[in-house]
Amino acid sequence: MLLICSIVIIYEFLRFLKLKEIIILNLKIYKKILKLFYFEKVSFFRKSKLILSYSKSLLLLSIKLFFILICVLIVLLAINLINNSFLNLFLSTIGIIESSLLFIIYHKIKKKNYAKL
Where are the domains of the chain? Predict the structure, then answer.
């Protein structure tokens, strides 16, 4: 029961912070930087300005991702204070499989409910 509650809390927290959009944006910036290196028609000055701009954006997104990861870890540690064996279950092979399945099932249920609205 504690595992189900923790998965729901983490799922809703990640949805609230729009983790998927942050990761997609992060990957798009990486692609832009790689394309910029292969562009030969762009001047060196323009390349350096664009790389600096992309790097700033990438740094901010990476800090957001790091913050999200820290918050998830804090939630897991707080739940571990309630039940000392929770992290052992969560980090075991069976716990990872159960958590993944619960995460996917909860995602499908949420998606189905939003489709009805």
Answer: 2-112
In angstroms, the CA 66 to CA 70 distance is: 6
Q: How far apart are CA 32 and CA 29, in angstroms?
A: 5
**pLDDT tens sequence across 23-48:** 999 999 999 988 888 887 878 888 88
Contact residues for 110 (Cβ-Cβ < 8 A; gap 6+): 11
Show the tokens assigned to 28.
């798009």
Q: How confident is the model at residue 58 (pLDDT cuts 50, 70, 90)?
A: very high
* pTM exceeds 0.85 for this model: no
- Output b/e per residue, 57-72; b: 16+ Cβ within 10 A: bbeebeebeeebeeeb
Instruction: Report d(CA 111, CA 106) in Å as an integer.
Output: 8
